[in-house]
Amino acid sequence: MNGEPETGRGYLEERGWRSWAYTMDHKRIGVMYLCTTIAFFFIGGIFALLLRLELLSPQAKYFSDHAYNVFFTLHGAMMIFLFIIPAIPSGLGNFFIPMHIGARDVAFPRLNLASYWIFVAGFLVVIASLVSPMDTGWTFYTPYSAKTGAAVATLSFGIFLIGMSSILTGLNFIVTIHMMRAPGMTWHRMPLFLWGMYATSIIQVIATPVVGVTFLLLAMERIFGVAFFDPSKGGDPVLFQHFFWFYSHPVVYVMILPAMGIISEVIPVFSRKPIFGYKAIAYSSLAIAFLGFLVWGHHMFTSGMSPLANAFFSFLTFFVAVPTAVKVFNWIATLYKGSITFEAPMLYALTFIFLFAVGGLTGPFLGALATDVQLHDTYFVVAHFHYTMMGGTVMGFFAGLHYWFPKMTGKMLNEKVARIAWALVFLGFNVTFFTMFITGFEGMPRRYAEYLPRYHVENVISSIGSAILAVGILVMFWNFLQGIRKGPPAPGNPWRALTLEWQTSSPPITENFPEIPVVTDWPYGYGEPKGRTA
Amino acid sequence: MEGACREKGSVMGKVFALGAASGQAAQVDAVFLMILVIGIFFFLLTQGLLIYFAVKYRRRSPDRDNETPRITENRVLEFFWILIPSIVVVVIFYYGWRVYTNLHEPEAGAVEVYVNGRQWLYEIKYPDGRTAINEIRVPAGKPVKFILSASDVIHGFYFPDFRGKMDMIPGRTTVLRLQPDRPGRYPIFCTVYCGTGHSNMMARLIVMPPAEYAEWAAHGEKEGGEGKEHEPLAVRGERIVKNAGCLNCHNIEGPVKVGPDWKGVYGRKVLLEGGKTVTADEDYLRESIVDPGAKIVKGFPNVMPTYKTTLPKDDIDAVVAYLKTLK
Which of A479, B48, B65, B325 allows an S-S link to A417, with CB 3.0 to 4.6 Å? Predict the structure, then answer.
């Protein structure tokens, strides 16, 4: 509330639980998603630390093998379905999509609230499945998932509900972006975060029903004995893998594209330079979303598929690398001749590029047939997807949280503490996960509660790294809490950014803008005396 | 073309020894190294520029903020940075695919070994009818064809030293080919998560010098019993227990695994599913090995496979003798 032109009340001012539970304000719904998903990030993180604790010793020490299997299943399932898929789209996306296009809300505010409560119902069902906790891995491979005594049907029903929420949110965003743009906000004047979110929403709407159906089939097999996947009754266990990856491969782009959108916002702001190759970045998001549907088979090179099918999937897989590389080149080119500062959002954005490069460049080892056969299902894969998902998406999420913290809370963060947290996260992440590339190359399979002593040193190093990483994340969130409690008030536009969300007060008023802005230029005109009119 | 490819692979494998245990594995390592070199090049190029730009163009004075040049595209540069990665990925794909196809080509005169995966052990059958558990013997220098199946859930069959892996799928047969060159003992891991005992599902590949293998194949006993006839029964039982994968599910000391633990099992009063109690005598122990489903200990799943056909009677006697020593 800082001297900005303002005609309404800050969106946080209304108090009482009803003002949250029944809210149709996209910002409040976004905040509720953020709080929920971050809570699951912490729970999933605790499971990760328990795994690393157990792996300090080659033999079962603190937990039984079964407990270990439950922990890695819950770590994966919670991190993926309850944190990384919804966090950026439903959390930050909800908050900033309408603000970015100069709208007062999403197209269907009531549906938006319903999506959130369906999500809540979903995670409650997931929690209910803990009475007989899942031990199948987050991939639910049949026939094991059809036979185990764990509550597979319950958990998959929970994820079914979460998927439904995700479809509704995706639809809402697509319609919002098509219909609600402010006057003058043409497609090519949209911030790149929106292009990322648009591509993401399309994938959510198209791919999520497939996993919903897959889980229904699995539930029918478990409950009614309809043998879709049981070979002894004429089913095919590998069919499940096809269904599962037809969803779960595109969904990795649901995870990464919004994070790439955040990076495309942060880099120009802190370089004071226009984004390089706007159209290339925008359309490469769509290209990645499209190619993402054609490559699911690369998760299954050792599943007995024909060598010809393997060759096709391998070939197509490599082409995802091209639009991805283009984005990285564009971000780096944006830095050229900039005037760069290194506040926390920028540190995380640069960290994203650095770690995602490692994740991206280790992809070809797994895309190439000869080396994938060796590395598949080893720790190499674990390292690769943590570099892309945590080093990529989660770093992008952290960049977004730091970047938009002043806007969402109206408070500034302690920059010094944020940098200490960043250093710990960067160090801890690399110690934990880079080591896993070596562990994997040496042949240690993933999902092992016990392992041969020859892998002991590598596992101890990873466990030490995970402790450093955990401390870093605790410091970061402690800093967030301190910022909310006693941070200095934030000005409307602390980063001097040109996108529309910064042209209103911090925190924004309930309907975002006193007047709907008229857009006359793209939002990346940095380094020039004239900015955009708002 | 293929010959040349193979030749090149093994030469590179010798130059950059990454620990591959055969010439074929060295071909895979050559692909690995090629991707590694390309990856390091692009990593240093992009991240070098990232760091260089970040340092060189750091903000020196606020005035500069308004003077940064308006550079929004460069068609030539963008054309090349789409073209070059496209070519590079096609090259990587091609090389990875050729080597993969080479390794999967059927070779004449391969030694065949049937391997069946089940929770949580590998059952091995040789064409001449001999069987074993978790231990595969093959001659060095000859191609081997593993014919893979699974009884319950999907399992993996992975030789880290030979860079080879194939899933074992219930209801169908898959094949893994291998040519081990050097005699030695190599681990085999299950790589597809298959339940509680997954990480203990392991086997050994024993690659024998051809002469030794011929002798073993001609009159060796199964279970590697060369010259072990005179060892005490309990010692023999302990060896069988270790080889047959029993310890994947049964612990002697420490936390209870999938099955009941064994310390002091002999003579113990056992509470069964259904409420009955039996005393664990020799007959009960024997029955639990050949017909594990007959009497289920309360609180444990009925998942143990029968060893009726995989262990001969005198081996079972030896195991029972061993169990009796665990006080």
Answer: A479
Chain B positions touching A382 (Cβ under 8 A) are none
Res. B276: pLDDT tops 70: yes
Range of the domain at B54: 2-59+74-103
- Cβ-contact B153, B305 below 8 angstroms: no
Compute the average pLDDT of residues A355-367.
96
Q: Does B12 touch chain A (CB under 8 A)?
A: no
Residues making up chain B, counted from first to last = 327
Q: What is the pLDDT of residue B295?
A: 85
Domain end marker among B157, B191, B224: B224
In a domain, B69, yes or no: no
* Residue B277 β-bridge partners: B271
CB pairs under 8 A between A and B: 280
> Could you report the per-residue pLDDT of B152-191, keeping only the tens digit for each?
999 999 999 999 999 999 988 899 998 898 899 999 999 9
Residue A144's nearest CA partner among B245, B256, B260, B169 is: B169
- Whether pTM exceeds 0.95: no
Interface residue B167 vs chain A (CB under 8 A): yes
B237 shares its domain with B183: no
User: Which of A474, A143, A151 is CA-nearest to residue B167?
Assistant: A143
Q: What average pLDDT score do residues A192-205 get?
A: 95
Distances from the Cα of A312 to the Cα of A294, A316, A485, B94, angstroms: 10, 6, 55, 11
* Nearest-by-CA chain A residue for B196: A66
Whole-number Å distance between alpha carbons of A328 and A281: 9
Residues of A in contact with B38 (CB under 8 A): 364
Contact with chain B for residue A373, Cβ under 8 A? yes
Average pLDDT over chain B, rounded to whole? Answer: 84
Q: Which CATH number describes the domain made up of A17-503?
A: 1.20.210.10
Looking at the fold, whether B115 and B204 belong to one and the same domain comes out as: yes
The pLDDT, as a whole number, for residue B11 is 42
What phi, psi does B204 have (nearest 5°)?
-125, 140
In a domain, residue B123? The reply is yes
Whether the complex's predicted ipTM is more than 0.95 is answered with no
- Chain B residue numbers with beta carbons less than 8 Å from the beta carbon of A244 are none
Contact of A182 with A517, CB cutoff 8 Å: yes
Q: What residue spans define the domains of chain A?
A: 17-503
pLDDT at B63 over 90: no
Mean pLDDT over A455-481 rounds to 97
Find, in chain B, the residue whose alpha carbon is nearest to that of A313. Answer: B93
Q: Position A361: which residue type?
A: L
Confirm or reject contact between B86 and chain A (CB < 8 A).
Answer: yes
Rg of chain A (C-alpha set): 23
Written as one letter, the residue type at A475 is V
CB-based contact (8 Å) between A147 and chain B? yes
pLDDT score at B18: 67
In a domain, B207, yes or no: yes
Residue A7 pLDDT grade (very low, low, confident, very high; cuts 50, 70, 90): low
pLDDT at residue A483 in the model = 96
Question: Among B170, B190, B224, which residue terminates a domain?
Answer: B224
Residue A352 vs residue A14, higher pLDDT: A352
The interface residues of chain A toward chain B in range 68-87, judged by CB-CB distance below 8 A, are: 69
For residue B310, the domain's CATH number is: 1.10.760.10
Task: Determine, yes or no, domain membership for B66.
Answer: no
Cα–Cα distance measured from residue A189 to residue A199, given in angstroms and rounded to the nearest whole number: 16
> Does one domain contain both B202 and B274?
no
Q: How far apart are CA A194 and CA A408, in angstroms?
A: 18
- The number of domains in chain B is 3
> At residue B7, does pLDDT exceed 50?
no
Chain B, residues 261-300, CB within 8 A of chain A, namely none
